[in-house]
Fold each of these.
Amino acid sequence: MARTDVGKLSFILLFAPFALWIALLIILPQLGIGYISLREKVGPGEYTFGFSNYVAFLSEPIYWNTLLRTAWMSILVTAMALAVGFPVAYYIAKIAQRRSRAALFLMCLIPLWVSDLVRAFGWIVILRETGLVSSLLQKIGLVSGPVELLYNDATVVMGLVYTVVLFMIVPLVSTLDGMDNSLIEAGYNLGGSRLTVFRRIVVPYAMPGIVAGCIIVFMLTAGSYLTPILLGGKNSMWFTEQIYEQFVTRYNWESGATFGVLLLVFTSFVVWLGLRLTGQSLASTVAKD
Amino acid sequence: MHDLQCESLVKRFGAYTAVNSVSFNVPRGSFFSILGPSGCGKTTLMRMIAGFEAPSSGDIRIKGKSVLSTPPNKRPVKMVFQHLALFPMMNVGENIAYGLRCRGENKADIGGKVARVLDRVGLPGTEHKQVSQLSGGQKQRIAIARCMVLEPDVLLLDEPLGALDLKLRERMKIELKQLQHQFETTFLYITHDQSEALLMSDNVAVMNAGQFEQIGSPQELYNNPKTGFVAGFVGDSNRWSGRVVSLSEGKVRVAIDGGGEVTALAGDNRIAAGGSVEVFVRPEAISIGGGRDEVLGGTVESLLFNGASSRILVRMDNGHLVEVGQAVMDGSVTVSPGEKVQICWSQLHGRAFTTAR
Amino acid sequence: MNVAAPQSPFLQWLYRGYMLAFLAYLAAPLFAAGMFAFNDSMFPALPWNGFTLDWFFSSTEPKIGMFHDRRLLRGLENSLYIGVLVSALAVAAGTCNAFLFERKQFPGKNVFYILMIVPLVIPGVILGISILVFASMIANGLEETFGIEWDFLRPGLFLVILGQFSFLTTITSLVIAARLRKFDISLEEAALNLGATRLRVLMTVTLPYLMPALFSAFVVAFLVSFENFNTTLMLVGSDAPLTITMYDRMVKVGSTPVLNAVSFFLMVGSGMLALLSVVVQKKDEPAT
């Protein structure tokens, strides 16, 4: 019938851009780096295929140490972002008055609209040897000479938490906002203490938001480049930095692609593990506007 | 002459038959209702007439011409949606002018027609109001005006009063009927609310499980139901199940489950001695005291005051709870809970229908 | 009484203190970055030498303001160009995706839906290198087999746009689909019933309804594109957008207050855009 033909045509017209986008910009390029990562240059225009790039990665401790360090710090950043962000989200969603709630939420969102670069630059201005904190400390007389607060792990973690905490707060606020206060009331009414109510009612309810926030934050942190470089300096040992170096500085695409694949596989594995452990799915968490 | 005819309409969704061989004719200028519980297929039926669903088989004719091959935007039927579906991004005038613009009529004509139809629905000069500024009843009238300005052959209304509060709903029933009278257009009204259907319609079709149980005037349906479903669905009824003891001259003697025997009119011709039946007696047919041909004993359980539709609840000796409606609160009968009473009604007011058991 | 709040006054006070500290933490680097744009000094550092607008408008050495710095202006121009183009494309594709996933039923829909979300969780650096690698493979293949030179497949504006498009489309799709989900389909049926053609229904009912979402999707995409660094870094050619230019300046020349001026300009600009999108959505809310 004519109407089903129209339906089919519109389906094809809608599906085509989607298919082109996903195939040409996501799937094929990922296969492309997978392909490059398996190839080794033996001479000009001559290649062999095998896992030699991966073997090279494993046999060079500085590489896999960097990956492990990146993963470990990303997990740390994620945990800290949750610890810092949850009270804020809870305050916005459950405690603040109706009117101040929107304003607070907006205030929390403002840094989101400012480039990573500007934020990192701001921290540099505050924390470096000639920066605000150092000058202030000297003025008060707490220290006698300039203090360098940049280029250490604590600063990198602090800066990363700053960069990503908003992505934790937004999904948390939207799930906590949906929770009826009567659930908490019922919890107390049935004899729960503050801690049990929080642990047994609030946290399980917020779980999709927590998982969504953690996934986004973890991926953003593991994939971040500017903050670790600018706040951590040359010794920050961040994995994306290695990728950049292989690609741009050494022009060694094969090993750069290998690192890319490893980062992707590794972070996907962590995300998959997180979803598994919490019993959530990607569609139910990240895509929940 | 019929404005709308449906012939053996069937709609299947996979293995599920939503509308099963439905046929009916709606005479020109009449108010026709389809009454049924939710999920009975009435909305599917209406969507087929509007062209949003294609029937699996059967035919739909408007003014004698089949419209099956006509796409929904070309059919001469207009529809008032359940939640009215007024366009929130347009003001009242633009909403009403929408259909005229689609037809490509010129601006001056459109302005005049919009003003005239607003006049007719009693909201003159509201062209520039926003939809959100209107009250529920006004929105209702705009939704009707938006359709009527196109002078359709048939106006479909899909439970348009469902979203209104009770008081407004009562008023809108009367108003709708008047609007229909004024426009002299055929209305096909869909509802699950029997009072809406009875009050407004010239004819009502009672629909159940995809099929029409009975088509008739409101009085016929109320006083002379043809099936147990109609007897139970249209109006209030006491209902007891039992077994046929004997049958003669259209009257059935029924042994009610739990004890007691009553006589009632046979509602269908499948009734046979020993068969299972349900007996329906309307509350307003039953009164306290004796003196009529059917008498049962019981105990008053509670008094339910509700003005004209007040009831006495009587627990009969056989354990059934009966609603008694006649002469309850006119002061002629004074009873109090716990009192032993007799209830009675005329045989002609009882009706028995076969049940599939 | 709000049962969700802590009950003792001390704890309430503590909680409020925490919120203040958090907001201060959020504001600190933005404030620091913005503040030194107005300091009459050669370095973005204390002491405070007095207020000046030189870092915006001065045209003489050594203090060249941002509006006279040719490379920064060129970067800004590139950023605007990329941002507008890529956001328009992403909104168009996102609209298609929203209709595809909200209106159509097809086998494998859930898998495709996850595929649609995936670009958001792939690290930007990897999106960048994968598109770089893929485009180069095609370019090399064309060159070797057919002798055709397609320069736009080499790092440059075109690849930057593709790279940003690849993940911005996910964002726009989610924003537009969320709005489309709330759309009452009977509005379309009503329009159809009143005699409109399918195209007319789309133009007069569905798209006007989606307009606020299209607008905010555009703004979000534009802002994210404007501030994107990771993906862009891998794909950039000679036409660097502003963030890359700034980064180069920071690494090669070191920080000068002109970077603070750019930061301030960016903060004000994106703040206003974000505010505009909030206002548009707020204004629309009572109508729905």
Amino acid sequence: MPTNLSARLCTLVLSLVLIAFALPAFAGPFEDAVAKFANDDYSDTEEAIGAVASSGNKLAFPIINALQDGRLMADPDSKKVYVTGTDGKSIDAATGEAVASVPDSASAVRLNNRLRRSVDAALGSLTLQSPDLGARLQAAQSVFKSHEETALDPVESALAKETNRSAKTALGEARAAILLFKSDATEVQKLEAVATIKARGDQEALALLSDIGTDQPASVAKAATSAIGSIQNSLAVWSTVQNAWYGLSLGSVLLLAAIGLAITFGVMGVINMAHGEMVMIGAYTTFVVQEVIRTRYPALFDYSLLIAVPLAFLVAGAIGVLIERSIIRFLYGRPLETLLATWGLSLVLQQAVRTMFGPTNREVGNPSWMSGAFDLGQITITYNRLWILVFTLAVFMILLAMLRYTALGLEMRAVTQNRRMAASMGIATSRVDALTFGLGSGIAGIAGVALSQIDNVSPNLGQSYIIDSFMVVVFGGVGNLWGTLVGAFTLGISNKFLEPVAGAVLGKIAILVLIILFIQKRPRGLFALKGRAVEA
Amino acid sequence: MTPHMLTRSLDRGAAIFLAIVAACGILIPLSNLLLPAGSFLQVPTYLVALWGKYVCYAILALSIDLIWGYCGILSLGHGAFFALGGYAMGMYLMRQIGTRGVYGNPILPDFMVFLNWQKLPWYWHGFDMFWFAALMVLFVPGLLAFCFGWLAFRSRVTGVYLSIITQAMTYALLLAFFRNDFGFGGNNGLTDFKDILGFNVQAEGTRAALFALSCLALIFSFLICRSVVSSKLGKVLIAIRDAESRSRFLGYRVESYKLFVFTLSACMAGVAGALYVPQVGIINPSEFAPGNSIEAVIWVAVGGRGTLVGAALGAIVVNYAKTFFTSGVLAPYWLFMLGALFILVTLLLPKGIVGTFNAWREASRERRPAAASAAAEDGVTEPKMAE
């Protein structure tokens, strides 16, 4: 656009000269445009906005910005216009010179809704070439939404200079939006525009395409309709993907909370109601580790979780061994009594933590590699949820391998299957019991490290997981780690798919009722161990 | 039940227990009403309400003992039946408020006006009549228990699994009753009651009468439980508790026996809840909390599982201790004590207080004649009683 460019250069030079000499008598187009704000006439104001925005003058942004905020003051008598800064100091809008005070006769330039749109579009075009990538993306986005024809030139010139890939895409979409609504754009341009907007494929693209009006050529209208259909389909797919992701994420949390229970309850048959408290102890271990790091070695903060994981395993595991040796071993074969004793234990542990750390939530921070999010197609994935999923699967695999390939794992399975036979083969069953319980508790502890990243670390942390964990283990089938995995993800995903339909609480109630009914059908869970033993 | 059968089914401990409850039920209200305030023997009104609460808990404990102690069904959701009975009574009391509520609506309770509801939900109809509410106190928990038990016992869900799904049941109800649009007052529950059957719920006379009624209900519940467990049905229940499969192989319909006793127990819990609400003055969803149900189980364990007197005694002792400790400087340590109680009772006192006492008494009774004859033979004056 040579004419445009030369005009812009011309104004630039002129205004520079004018600023240098401060000679308002040599009024250039920029000054004329600014003076129009003082006419108190909507159409003059609109012309002024367009002229100022396209002037390229460095005052253009402050002027339009002030206009939007109601800080642009115009004096109808002297035709002078002033920008009142947010700090209360004022400048002459035409020259940029500071003025002592705005005359009393000046009043704020008025806007109506149509003008507000022009202001938004003008601001958008003014920031299209901002050095800050975020501002550029935002500006392109605002042009995309407003699709003001006046923004076409700035968008195109910005597009020519843009080097960043995502900003380029955004500007291309903004351009397409303008062309689609521009009455004199060619049919080819419009069809291309529809294709570009279709490629964007989000809710806003859908809104824009549904909004093109009836005066479009038939081919464009047809293309738009088909684009709307395909965007709707892809949005439906993405929303399913999103629910599935949320479900996987919830499932991983459930699995993490339940996996230790799958060992103590599933493998040993011990009802450990204090399991949630082991999770809580793991979370508080993380808190203590972070606290030490914060005060002594702040540089290590990003590694705090890596330090907390083995520590939490050891702390919770040691407490687990202690519990097994002092309480649970006296109660083998009396599951209901075990349930009551461990419930009492959970009260003691909660109260102990409450006494030591106070009843309120404690602050556990996210290390930098766990904060933030990235976009995948139309959904946003947060790093902490992703890491928890990865971590959960890793813990699961390690546990599975441990049970399968280590000597302790072999002994555990032997004791589970036939305690007396294992004892006669020389396995120290009571030692294996203690270690198994310690292992289950230790895994609950490292679950606590992960859960401290997404939940409040308070003495009640464990309570909120205990019922869910039991549901997962019972649903999946006792004594079967794979069952626990399938159970956790089934519950997580079905919960998240029920949530949009029934709401969060009703969805949860529905899941509980379904599990109760499911247990009637399969009292031993999804993957029950087959056997011929008759109970009692 | 003929008087002869009644006396036969009562041993001395049960008779003493009933006599004490009856005496409390008569004397405490009389002392509260007739003696001048501040007198040494006068029981203050707040204590009457507090002890009334304990008596309701004792009925709940009896209902748990009936199924756990005699049939081996450990329900961790009995608080749900208690709360449902309480809600049924609470709904009656809400309807009695009438125009005296904050918004003065003659039909709708305050919270519904607040939520901008236009008319009464269908399930609130009829609760302005006491007989209907009283029927619902039995019917709603009974129906829930019947449906739940019908499903669970027929598919032979037993032991720990049953405990866990009863816990899931009360948890689901907790979540449901917390919802405002469920129509039971959300997390505030039902409160601010004015009168019951025309008597002011706050009045001393009403409180004394409610206390006496609670004692009466406890006596009745005790007698019902007693007649169940000492009948032939009770023997079958104990057989099911000790060897379920064997009972089934002998031809007993195990699930029918369990279903009967579970439903009966739920109705009793409902009655306990219904008596509890006017004395406490509020019913809210926290009564459904799984922790409450588990705590009720520990009352039974402390007092003595499988002894009816023990269950009632356990409820009163543990709750008295709770009130005593949570009101003083020891409050932060109460949960330690409660937790330790759970652990120590299951580890050291599996039969509970009354069960251990009975066992000790029987042992010493057996030993005494033997010791006496030994003394006569050897001429030793003072035989040493081992243990």
Amino acid sequence: MGAVRAELLKLKRSLSWTVVAALPLMAVLAGVVNTLVCGAALDEGWHTLWLRTVVVYGLFPLAAGVAVLASLLWRVEHQGGNWNALMGRPTSALAVVSAKVVVLAVLAALMQAVLVAGVSVAGTAVFGLPGALPPRYLLVSAVIVAACLPAAALQSALSMLMRSFAAPVVVAVVGSTAGTLLVLIGHGTLSTVMPYALLTRATQLGTGVFGDDGTVTGEGAALVVAAASALTAAVVAGSAALLNRRDVH
Amino acid sequence: MTGRPRADDRGAVSHIITTHCLSKTYGDRTVVSDLDLRVPEGCVYGFLGPNGSGKSTTMKMLLSLVRPSTGEVRVMGRRMQRSTRRDLLRDIGSLIEAPPAYTHLTGGENMRLVQRLLGLSDGQVLRAVRTVRLQDHLDRRVATYSLGMRQRLGIALALAREPRILILDEPTNGLDPAGIEEMRGLLTHLAGRGITVVVSSHLLGEIDRTATVLGILGQGRMLFQGTREELLARSVPDVLVDTPDPDRTAALAGGWGAVRDGPGVRVPGLDHDTTAELVARLVHEGVAVYGVRREEQSLEDVFMDLTGGGGL
């Protein structure tokens, strides 16, 4: 717990907050502009707005955003003598790795909260949609946050190993492109075990596009959450073992 | 290899850190070779050597940041390795290479971060900050700190856990003379509190007066380990012969490596018996000998001799 609290303190004056606010708002803005410019009506109200905002967001911007956040979190450890200090303390490698992933999960959840708030405000203020955003999208949002975890753990591991800020982000973009292809061809097993594909799959939940059947069931949500939990645990355990074995140069 | 000290360590309880045949190689490049370090408890151990002599790698192996290729490190009687390091590191503070700190945070926030991470009390943090006299600068972002202040913050971060051992890698690097003097005072103060300090430098003068024990490293090998008095005693200063006939003297003593040196003759590496033999020979050959003396050597000269001058 101390390691997580220490990690949260490192977020002070961090660029991470800009990413958390800007990326989902850009997705909302893109959805709004797309609707206004094309003049296409929101035939199914909130559903259409959600679809136009989240589908593209889930193809690769979300994974890239998670990757940027991971690079930002690890960048400070690659500076000065921070690696030596980090590993010269009596904190276990598992605690170091887990704390980073927990903070990434918090940031991913906040990013999703901004997205939900943005869609709600746009739907009401710009398009005058009746009522509030249906609760099913809150459930979908929770599933998206859960599905962010394996990608976050993987990006965290890459940013831990690579001094480069951009290289892990490139991996995320390539990975999410491959993931999108897996979702498109409807490969159920691979799109469940590949973190980027799982993330894309979660963002399409209930949209009825890219092989999604348009429904949001408890079973479907539970499958994504279970797969995400197992993948995250595996990646965290693997990267902690790697960190423990690795020399600090 | 955890738990109690081994039977063969019981006779070395006064040594808080020992290494046995410690080596590190990268490919075919040997960085540290067969190092037997003996750090007495409560001392300031000055770890000296030219840049690239293997000091930082050795210090990293002491902390298990780098795994030895062969040999072992024992700290407080226990073998230091990946499986034991977290436990042992509770009692070891360190500052390796560049000073650590998150520059976008203030000094105070950096201290609070370590406090949260290690579950330290406010008192522990305050004592560490006061020890390095940084209490008036905690509200400033570290990015605005001078190098000296960053070094002091790095030491405060290492001290906050109240360690028994402090390992500092070139803490005076880049400091001005006043900063170096301040660091010397700090190290002496810490040793006075019973903390064993291992401090490295490539400049003898920086830690000569502070260190009670010296370890001199050259090309990854331990060239000398002991007190400064032992270091001076170990060296064999050149013999200088004062004579009105230096050319003949140099020729007669040529077998001992004698050379002309100004108005006299210099003969290197002679022990007492050989010196007596040399004098007897000169007298026997009828050479006038006005005086024979050993050249005075400073600690710096000895260091230079040992390291081949690479440290200066």
Amino acid sequence: MVQNIIDVRNLSKSFDISSKEPGLKGTIKHFFRRQTKSLKVIKNISFEIKEGEIVGFLGANGAGKTTILKMLCGLIYPSEGSILVSEHLPFRRKENFLKNITLIMGQKQQLIWDLPPIESFYLNASIYDIDKFEAKKRIKKLSEMLEIDEELFIPVRKLSLGQRMKSELLAALIHEPNILFLDEPTLGLDINAQRNLRKFLQKYNKETNATICLTSHYMKDITSLCKRVICVQEGAISYDGKLDLLLKKLSPVKEILIVCRSEEDASKLENFGFTVKNKIKNEITIKIENESITPSLKSILNNFDIEDLFINEPPIDEVIGKVLIKKEYDI
Amino acid sequence: MISNLINRKIFTLLKVQYSNMLEYRVEIALWAISGIIPFFMLNIWTNNNLNESINISDILLSRYFLCAFFVRQFSVVWVVFSFEEDSLMGKVSPYLIQPLNPFFRYFAQHLAEQITRFPFALIIAFFFFIINPESLWIPNLSILLLSIVSTFLSFLIQFLIQSIIACLCFWTEKASSIERLLFIPTLFLSGLLAPVVSFPAYVKSWIYLTPFPYLIDFPANLMSGNETNISGGLGMQILWIFLLYPLFKKIWSEGTKKYTAMGS
């Protein structure tokens, strides 16, 4: 049986936020009497993640996804509840724990800006107690996987965003962590760079059985990497389960465009009991529930002379986008 | 364990930071030149014959201010400003989840800069002796070694004081303003503007209980061959380090619990 590597119970996090009214009056008031309030950004959440799983965290901006990742990797201290990651309390930041994890933030970098990435790699290797020979081997292996070569010797400031991101990944993976926390790792990358990064993460997960927790606003990242998603809405978990099931739940109906041989057939089909979206001459678009799609199509093909038919999957961005709209969609 | 840390982690950090510093050669030269306050002070002291009141000859005074310049070059600390910026911008986050306290990075950065500054400081000293040839002296080797140790201890004290203040970023966000409060006593009581011996006796007795005279005055007096209590001075430097280090550890461990990883 696969072990749980992450176990989160009744986790909450509050931040003290100070607010200020606009204008000079507000500024003076703020200077003498600062008003702070405690904002609960994570509200009593619980979940487990198994070893080797790739889990996507979905949610609107400010929903609390990144805060969850930050608590999981020990960067911030939880207000309430418990977290166990690889049998460690993350916020204690014990050496054994830190050597087991990595955090990659799409908008933050750890590479030394004025030096070539190779210098940061060797530095990280020494921080993680990896000897020079082993470091060299790992850099070679990872750079082949990431398809970077000459870039290793060019100052970071002169690299493109994609090259920099690949170098960031290499720096973050040199100690071969078995838990990866990725906060929008493809942010700002072009389509090819995004695809390469996803391919790399899939390969890394397959080869090392690493657990990956990922947040991204690019749905392609989520759909191509994650079988399981956790949806976060205003600090609480609104869905935790298979991505397929979520998609079915959010989009229970498919649209089917049927091209009949005659207009007469199309008119008959219009009155056959299906929900019709529209009809133009011999073309008719009907809506069928996912569960009854096979028998319905069978019946249509048996009873009508059909020239062609197209099943339209709703765009995944649109479907998952419903999750990101606060309060609008109750999963 | 500790030797491994020093041998591998710190050495690699130092090497990398030194490479990084060499990218900023011109800036380092300008920073070295900007530290010539002691030479201005020397000019004020000698032109106004102020040294007569404290029974120090012109030559000893010029050596003192040259040594104060050297000590300052190798003990100047700015960790509070670097940490404050990194903390507010969330840049410190990736370092917090590595098995090495981020302050080691800043420590290596400072040491690397000191190594980079060294040749520029020597050039300035060379010109100083051309202008003041009578001040030229060759210090005793053991005194020179003790002065280097004392300068390093002075750097450690300042690094620890600023690191403690830097950790206040976890509570106040703008910890550098607290550091500015310390700037005035550091300027006046450290011996940068005037040797501490020039202060009235009752003031001196209080000053010597603070860490300030051990930052510039003591190592500069030691290096320049002026009369000073060597064991007492080194003892006080070590005592301050022993007092400040646990305080830093405590404030660091409490502060990281408050870290909100802003900007990331």
